[in-house]
Design goal:
The protein has helices spanning 14-22, 42-45, 65-73, 87-113, 122-142, 151-173, 188-197, and strands spanning 2-5, 29-32, 53-55, 61-63. The chain is of the alpha+beta class and 211 residues long. The chain has a four-stranded mixed beta sheet with strand order 2-1-3-4, covered by helices on one side. β1 (2-5), α1 and β2 form a beta-alpha-beta unit. The relative contact order is 0.16.
Length: 211
């Protein structure tokens, strides 16, 4: 299998962490892919032109983090990250979806920050940022109910790490965003939960070394 994704220096994507968890590194060839470059081959494989995209040995492709995560979770013999049934399944999927929303909303902020300051939509950025803060507050409320590691928690770690890595730079470029904002300040349960997870090897071993 081949995984088309964009490696980021200092960051381990959720898909990389899941591959580490599942012990699938020997079965997947990582392919560095930059979706915004004009000559990217990605659209010829995935019409959406988005990463991650997973090319299966059969020639079929899977696109979208949630689809790829669940497929990879079906390929190992460890405890599954997706609960099979019951209330916990729906709670876990809701938490994973919320983390996806956190990541995707901040990507919208990043894209808007590429515009000159005078051309940026300040109200749009403010609306995006309110969503970011609201999701962080929801995660703080969810933490007491966390049990064993699942896809909801794994995706949450990925989204939080992405924000912490990018915010100091993006905050300087995006109008009205505070680059010194501390995601964990005022969220003690989130901070206490996140700290030991970041010491786990699965969140510290990227598939590729970014350029």
């Amino acid at each position: 299998m081949k995984l088309l994704y964009t490696p980021i220096k200092g960051y381990v994507h959720t898909v990389e962490a899941l591959i580490n968890y599942a012990g699938l590194r020997d079965r997947i060839e990582p392919v560095a892919t930059r979706p915004f470059e004009p000559d990217t081959p990605l659209p010829s494989v995935n019409p959406l032109g988005k990463v991650p995209t997973l090319l299966l040995d059969s020639g079929e492709y899977l696109a979208g983090g949630p689809v790829i995560y669940e497929y990879l979770d079906s390929l190992h013999r460890r405890r599954r990250l997706y609960p099979a049934k019951g209330p916990q399944r729906w709670t876990t999927l809701r938490q994973a979806w919320m983390a996806d929303g956190l990541f995707d909303t901040f990507v919208l902020v990043i894209i808007e920050s590429w515009q000159p300051p005078e051309q940026q939509r300040r109200e749009y950025l403010a609306r995006c940022w309110r969503k970011v803060v609201g999701i962080l507050d929801q995660i703080e409320r969810d933490v007491p109910g966390y049990g064993r590691l699942d896809i909801g928690q794994m995706r949450t770690v990925g989204a939080l790490q992405f924000l912490r890595l990018k915010l100091p730079t993006i905050g300087k470029a995006a109008s009205g965003i505070d680059p010194s904002y501390d995601l964990l300040a005022g969220r003690p349960q989130l901070a206490e939960w996140l700290k030991p997870l970041l010491r786990k090897k699965l969140f510290r071993e990227p598939l590729l070394r970014p350029e």
